[in-house]
């Protein structure tokens, strides 16, 4: 099931996206549900063509927990060792944007980079000091994320807060997918440079598989829950494969995760 949060003529709602994404957005519809998606799904009977609504970030979490260096090749390209236990950081909720929204490059940084990631969404039960079995049950579904990072500020500050925390630095979407096995999914990042002619192909920057994670999603949920209580809707970013690189004013960045979806955002420099 694909759960979206969207704006329509009557306001903002959650809904179930119907149809096959491979056929294009024009072939998809979204069926409105009552309230939030964490309980029993009940349809209101209202339905829209996906092209006639605006997708928002699929959830507004109380917190976004990032995991660093969770792929060995990425740790190596950053000149770092593989951590002995998950390396956690936080991204503020004000960094969250949705599919189609604009990533804004701040003037404080000269090196803002993309990081394609599978994101875990916590369900209704939440998680507190959860063992592996409870952690698995706490996962509602998965979405696509771009853990946008000001790399020069990350090196300068050492800790990650400023580098990871600018407004618009956490695109999520286009929806949450339930019932997906995350054990071996392709993770891809494509960048279409500014000024590319119509029909130009995007450059594949990152191409990895979730099987190469050092710590799998269930392990991450359990680990994080022993540090902080995870509430319904909270998001854990599971790390990025090798190939991170710069984003420039006018670029279009798409993160694709097999069986989950494609998240696209345009990049604009702030004055």
TrEMBL record:
GO terms for molecular function: acetylpyruvate hydrolase activity; isomerase activity; metal ion binding. Residues 63-268 form the Fumarylacetoacetase-like C-terminal domain. It comes from Planosporangium flavigriseum. Pfam families: FAA_hydrolase, Rv2993c-like_N. Keywords: Isomerase, Metal-binding. GO terms for biological process: carboxylic acid metabolic process. Gene3D superfamilies: FAH, Fumarylacetoacetase-like, C-terminal domain. This is 2-hydroxyhepta-2,4-diene-1,7-dioate isomerase. The lineage of its organism: Bacteria, Bacillati, Actinomycetota, Actinomycetes, Micromonosporales. PANTHER family: ACYLPYRUVASE (PTHR11820), ACYLPYRUVASE FAHD1, MITOCHONDRIAL (PTHR11820:SF7). Residues 1-58 form the Rv2993c-like N-terminal domain.
């Amino acid at each position: 099931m694909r759960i979206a949060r969207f704006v329509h003529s009557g306001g903002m709602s959650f809904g179930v996206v119907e149809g096959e994404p491979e056929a294009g957005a024009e072939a998809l519809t979204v069926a409105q549900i009552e309230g939030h998606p964490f309980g029993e799904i009940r349809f209101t009977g209202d339905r829209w063509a996906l092209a006639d609504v605006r997708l928002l970030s699929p959830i507004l979490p109380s917190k976004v927990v990032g995991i660093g260096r969770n792929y060995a090749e990425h740790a190596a390209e950053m000149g770092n060792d593989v951590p002995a236990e998950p390396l956690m950081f936080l991204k503020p909720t004000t960094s969250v944007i949705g599919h189609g929204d604009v990533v804004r490059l701040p003037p404080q940084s000269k090196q803002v980079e993309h990081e394609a990631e599978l994101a875990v969404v916590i369900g209704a039960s939440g998680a507190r000091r959860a063992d592996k079995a409870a952690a698995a049950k706490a996962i509602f579904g998965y979405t696509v994320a771009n853990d946008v990072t000001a790399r020069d500020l990350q090196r300068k500050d050492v800790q990650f807060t400023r580098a990871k925390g600018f407004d618009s630095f956490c695109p999520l979407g286009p929806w949450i997918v339930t019932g997906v096995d995350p054990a071996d999914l392709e993770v891809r990042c494509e960048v279409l440079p500014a000024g590319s002619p119509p029909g130009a192909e995007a450059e594949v920057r990152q191409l990895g598989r979730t099987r190469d994670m050092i710590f799998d999603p269930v392990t991450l949920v359990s680990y994080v829950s022993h540090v902080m209580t995870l509430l319904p809707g909270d998001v854990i970013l599971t790390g990025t494969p090798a190939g991170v690189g710069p984003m420039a004013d006018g670029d279009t960045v798409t993160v694709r995760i097999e069986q989950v979806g494609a998240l696209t955002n345009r990049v604009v420099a702030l004055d």
